[in-house]
Design brief:
Blueprint lengths: L3 H4 L21 H18 L1 H29 L8 E5 L5 E5 L19 E2 L3 E2 L20 H4 L4 E6 L3 H7 L22 E3 L11 H4 L4 E4 L10 E7 L2 E10 L1 E5 L3 H11 L14 E4 L11 E4 L18 H16 L10 E2 L12 H15 L1 H14 L2 H7 L4 H29 L3 H4 L3 H23 L5 H28 L5 H8 L2 H22 L16 H25 L15 H4 L1 H5 L19 H14 L6 E12 L8 E12 L3 E5 L6 H8 L7 E6 L2 E2 L4 H5 L2 E4 L11 H11 L4 H14 L17 H13 L5 E5 L7 H14 L4 E5 L3 H7 L2 E6 L2 E6 L1 H8 L2 E8 L4 H11 L4 E6 L2 E7 L5 H12 L4 E7 L3 H16 L1
Parallel strand pairs: 4-6, 5-10, 5-11, 7-9, 16-21, 16-22, 19-20, 20-21
Antiparallel strand pairs: 1-2, 3-13, 6-7, 8-9, 11-12, 14-15, 14-17, 17-18, 22-23, 24-26, 24-27, 25-26
Helix pairs in contact: 2-12, 2-24, 3-9, 3-12, 9-15, 9-17, 10-14, 10-15, 12-14, 14-17, 14-18, 15-17, 17-18, 24-25, 29-32
Length: 960
């Protein structure tokens, strides 16, 4: 007898006995990998149009960028984007063309060569009058009324450790001196200031072009109330204007924190009302003394116009530095001491032409979309195999997880490499600087690392999703969403120097942002390289302070391995279409020991009082005894042994638990076909799912050829064949290709494989007429069913499960299929479910009827009919007026007879066999014919269908 722990306890302990082991030789890793590789290559050959479309996406995108780049280049080749030349009259008649900034139009000047750049005064950046700082709630700033007349002073803040020393320097910042206004460079004596925006170079000083925005910073402007007259020549043009006078105002602050607070509040956006109250500059003299000059200057490097835009430009900071140094010198040496800053000048430059590398400018966004388009493809492929149970179908026929991961990963890697190779090749051939200027070896390494990370992400995502449509939608949302976030958010953070590097690093932990950062580096280096005529990013640039490529490559490499391990782990321990889940600590099995690593706790505890066991059913009791003998090795070997397996689904939403299978004990020897009968929802498919490893039993144990299916499922699959209830086929593969694949998984090779495939096709009538070489997607439902049966039997499996194999077959095909199953059961155990009683009687050596998750009876067809069919069925048809006389006749034959059907004169009776003899029935009918009209009558023994109906009805009546 079974141990109490296995019989009654809710905990599942390791059994003390198990059936004898059959020496099974599974296929090797290489054989499985070879079979899957051949199948995948054939599958991809059938999908060459789809793969071709994927490969051509980079080509069309590069072609689009090339067209846009060509159009932009055509625009920039016009004369307005080249250096302008002007005719300058000489002493002789005629003219001579000279080119340069002095002679060019404003739009052409920036492209001209400048051998000797002009010299400009160093201006101090000052706020415009309407933006200068004024008093707010009792501060020491001037009254706001000065803005009405434009007389607000230019404010400067200062602080120091030695206040008296700093206050001594303040009067020496701005002093009146003799000056000559005939030379622009002598504006240096006036301490010139300007509120105009700067340009990106100093070839032209905007303060000279807009003298109305220029100021002379003087301590007393009362002498220059009408402005300071100023005239100079700009090329051939004469400029006459008046420079405004602005008085400086120095304000003391106790600490630099207070200085910084005032600067921030005065800056645009630094206060709730978004008011501008700008300070020109601030000086922190720190530890400055007579023997030491220590100064920190704060200034606004992001002057904005009234629309809030900040044009790119240089920083006017040299004059601020000169003023501080000169004030320090004058305080120590006297007011006459000078530290002149006469001018500033740009470096000479050659003639340039405007260039805009459109591909590099838009590269991060568009190229990110192109590269990530492979992610939804990978996810769709993997989730498709899981959703339609193709993965578990392959697994149940012997394909291990190792070969599956290796071949699938290798296929996606090859596809990704070809995809990126075409991407780089197309881009380079059509001349995109994004590819040509950057180091090819660096690009290859970067893309290789990311492609592997992307494949790992695809495998990881496939463990989460179980529906293809959901996975596809989420995949494309990820692709386009991260592209837009990278372009409009992440890039802004990267370029913002004030943004935390730690926060950027945290964002780069997301693979989408890592890819975008790498593409951004390639793009920026290529853009600058194209503009300057130099190369793009090289290996030597990885150590540049602001280059983040090295960091993201390291992040992606680590995540690649980490995500791959997590994906494999989740694939093993999460039930999502790939079979039985493993123990969460399965990788420690060798360390913890066999018993500790394999001990399982049922997912749902079953109370004994909830399971009703009818001990009066002798056939069920004998079957349990057979199970005990099989477990103790005292009987003949059995291929399948189910020891009290149960499946209970926990109750939800207030509903009670669902008992799908209530303690099934079954022992099936080799050479027997066992039929499982029962109404829909009786638990047949659930039982087979547990026997094939699709579901884990709540309690109980299943042994296949002596191996526990939850411990040795991979070994068991090598000797198993399955014909599922629904055909699990690849639509693009032919019937022959299906059988070749599954035959290789069963270790068939060469001529043996070819002969086995041909024999299988012939056995199910798919050989003649080339039917076996047609794609299964073009098969009818019956042809697919026959192919599924052939797949389950190829390779001589020791155990075969057939779930309603004849569904949808015509009578001829069904009869042929029965011949195949009868031939196949000679040396293997077969479990078959069906709703055809005829099929069950013909094929099955024993039958078990399931009702309400429980095995109600078991035995061969004759035993069941004898046990549950102790009645004859007597049918008779007469006029409706004669029904009473028929009833009297039957009652005389058998008082225990029961009428089970009555409609318009047609009646059917169950007559106990012990009450009558067949001759009595014939004599009674012949006598009745002389008394009333009998249109038709019949007398039959109980059928299997009657038994089925009776058992189901009895169980239902008992429950009620």
């Amino acid at each position: 007898m079974a141990s109490p722990a296995r019989r009654n306890g809710s905990e599942q302990e390791e059994p003390t006995h198990r059936p004898p082991l059959l020496q099974m030789q599974g296929t090797s890793f290489t054989t499985q990998a070879n079979a899957l590789l051949r199948k995948n290559l054939t599958f991809q050959k059938r999908n060459k149009k789809t793969n071709g479309c994927i490969i051509t996406i980079p080509f069309f995108l590069c072609l689009l960028l090339f067209g846009l780049q060509t159009g932009i280049n055509a625009i920039f080749s016009g004369s307005e984007y080249k250096c302008g030349c002007q005719c300058v009259r000489t002493s002789t008649s005629g003219c001579e063309e000279e080119c340069g900034v002095e002679y060019s139009s404003a739009s052409q000047a920036v492209f001209c060569p400048i051998d000797s750049p002009p010299k400009w005064p160093a201006f101090l950046q000052v706020p415009a009058p309407q933006y200068r700082a004024v008093a707010k709630e009792g501060t020491d700033l001037p009254s706001a009324s000065c803005r009405d007349v434009g007389s607000c002073p230019v404010s400067f803040l200062y602080t120091a450790q030695n206040r008296s020393f700093a206050e001594g320097m303040v009067p020496f910042f701005f002093q009146m001196s003799n000056f000559n206004l005939s030379d622009p460079l002598l504006l240096s004596d006036l301490t010139p200031g300007s509120s105009s925006w700067t340009f990106s170079s100093n070839f032209i000083e905007p303060a000279i072009l807009s003298p109305g925005d220029s100021y002379a910073i003087l301590p007393n402007c009362s002498s220059f109330s009408n402005g300071i007259p100023f005239s100079f020549s700009l090329g051939s043009e004469s400029v006459n204007t008046d420079i405004k006078c602005a008085e400086p105002s120095f304000l003391w602050r106790e600490s630099y924190n207070l200085v910084n607070d005032d600067l921030y509040k005065g800056f645009r956006g630094g206060n709730p009302r978004n008011e501008i109250n700008e300070i020109s500059a601030a000086y922190d003299f720190g530890s400055t003394s007579a023997k030491k000059f220590d100064v920190t200057i704060a200034f606004n490097a992001t002057y904005k116009n009234d629309t809030g835009e900040s044009p790119p430009g240089l920083v006017r900071v040299s004059r601020s530095m000169n003023l501080a140094a000169q004030a320090f010198l004058r305080m120590l040496q006297g007011a006459d001491a000078k530290l002149p800053l006469w001018f500033i000048a740009e470096m000479p430059k050659v003639e340039t032409q405007l260039k805009l590398d459109f591909a590099s400018l838009l590269g991060p966004l568009f190229f990110m979309w192109v590269i990530q388009l492979l992610l939804p493809v990978i996810m769709t492929y993997l989730v498709y195999e899981k959703q339609y149970r193709l993965r578990i179908m392959m697994k149940m026929h012997g394909l291990g997880d190792g070969p599956y991961w290796l071949i699938s990963y290798g296929y996606f890697l090859v596809l990704s490499i070809v995809y990126m190779f075409c991407f780089i090749l197309f881009g380079s051939l059509i001349g995109l600087k994004f590819f040509r200027l950057n180091s090819y070896s660096l690009q290859v390494v970067f893309y290789f690392i990311y492609l592997n990370l992307q494949i790992a992400c695809g495998f990881l995502a496939s463990t989460i999703f179980s529906n293809v449509r959901t996975a596809t939608v989420i995949g494309y949302m990820y692709v386009f969403g991260f592209g837009l976030l990278g372009n409009f958010l992440f890039e802004y953070f990267v370029q913002d120097q004030s943004f935390s590097e730690g926060a950027i690093f945290a964002m780069e932990l997301l693979p989408g942002f890592s890819l975008y950062r790498g593409l951004l580096e390639f793009s920026q280096y290529a853009f600058i390289g194209n503009y300057k005529g130099t190369s793009g990013i090289q290996w030597s640039n990885l150590n540049d302070p602001e280059n983040g490529l090295k960091t993201v490559m390291s992040i992606m490499a680590v995540e690649w391995l980490l995500f791959l391990l997590i994906a494999f782990y989740l694939d093993q321990v999460v039930v999502s279409g790939s079979g039985l889940k493993k123990d969460p600590l399965f990788f420690l099995k060798g360390i913890l020991g066999r018993n500790k690593g394999s001990k399982r706790t049922p997912s749902f505890k079953v109370a004994n009082s909830q399971i009703k066991i009818d001990l009066q059913k002798q056939d069920i009791g004998h079957e349990r005894e057979s199970v005990e003998r099989a477990l103790s090795h005292s009987g003949p070997p059995h291929a399948i042994v189910c020891d009290e397996i149960r499946k209970v689904y926990p109750g939800r939403d207030g509903n009670p638990p669902k008992f799908a299978v209530k303690g099934l004990s079954l022992a099936i020897p080799r050479g027997e076909c066992f039929g499982m009968l029962g109404p829909n929802g009786a638990g047949k498919t659930t039982s087979i799912s547990m026997m094939t490893g699709l579901l884990a039993p709540t309690s109980g144990t299943i042994y296949i050829e002596g191996l526990d299916i939850q411990e040795n499922v991979d070994k068991i699959y090598s000797c198993m064949g399955v014909c599922p209830q629904h055909d699990l086929l690849w639509e693009t593969l032919t019937g022959r290709e299906h059988l070749l694949f599954y035959g290789r998984l069963k270790n068939l090779k060469g001529a043996e494989l070819s002969n086995a495939v041909d024999a299988s096709l012939r056995s199910v009538n798919l050989f003649n007429g080339g039917v076996g070489d047609k794609r299964s997607g073009k098969y009818s439902g019956g042809m697919k069913r026959r192919l599924s049966v052939a797949i389950s039997l190829i390779g001589d499996p020791k155990v075969v499960y057939m779930d309603e194999p004849s569904t949808g077959l015509d009578p001829a095909s069904r009869s042929n299929l029965w011949d195949v199953v009868r031939e196949a059961k000679r040396n293997r155990a077969i479990i078959l479910t069906t709703h055809s009683m005829e099929e069950a009687e013909i094929l099955c050596d024993r039958l078990g009827i399931f009702v309400d998750g429980e095995l109600q009876c078991i035995g061969n067809s004759k035993e069941l009919k004898s046990r549950y069919g102790g009645s004859y069925v007597f049918s008779i048809k007469t006029d409706q007026s004669e029904e009473g006389r028929v009833m009297d006749m039957v009652q005389r034959l058998s008082p225990n007879a029961r009428r089970v059907y009555n409609l318009s004169g047609t009646q059917k009776f169950e007559v106990p066999k012990l009450d009558v003899r067949i001759a009595d029935i014939f004599r009674a009918v012949e006598h009745a014919k002389r008394e009333f009209s009998i249109q038709a009558w019949g007398f039959a023994d109980t059928t299997l269908e009657d038994v089925f109906i009776k058992v189901a009805r009895d169980v239902k009546d008992t429950e009620q």
